[in-house]
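Incident log, support desk, overnight shift.

02:14 A customer reports that sequence design results differ from what the structure should imply. Their input is reproduced verbatim below. On-call engineer (initials T.W.) acknowledged and began investigating.
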């Protein structure tokens, strides 16, 4: 496998809210490490993971840091493929213009195609 093939791409699915567990932070950390090693990374925000993209993230209970600083670093690591599940946005009463970074919205069918197009998929 070479770095030019689609199979070299990594899809990281982020399903958890910024606070309450370390899942989101760990998923973002994995994405940054992979990108640092020249892996092309796509981030898919689903369910409560969509809330990580909201402006104004503060420290959470028990002093958990917000994820905004990490999300702002994505561009430095050439992670610019950010995808959001449309159903999650709708369920939370949000729209794409309320998110802190530009994203592409996908439907359930789009998610299936996205997963199928990546050889490496990690779920957080």
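02:41 Re-run completed on a clean worker. Output:
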């Amino acid at each position: 496998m070479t770095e030019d093939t689609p199979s070299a791409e990594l899809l990281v699915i982020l399903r958890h809210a910024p606070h309450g567990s370390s899942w989101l932070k760990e998923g973002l950390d994995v994405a940054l490490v992979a990108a640092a090693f020249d892996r092309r990374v796509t981030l898919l925000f689903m369910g409560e993971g969509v809330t990580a993209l909201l402006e104004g993230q503060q420290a959470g209970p028990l002093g958990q840091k917000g994820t905004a600083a990490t999300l702002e670093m994505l561009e430095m690591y050439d992670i610019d493929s950010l995808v959001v599940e449309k159903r999650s946005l709708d369920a939370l009463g949000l729209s794409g213009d309320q998110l802190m970074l530009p994203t592409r919205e996908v439907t359930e069918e789009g998610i299936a195609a996205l997963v199928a197009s990546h050889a490496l998929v990690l779920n957080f």
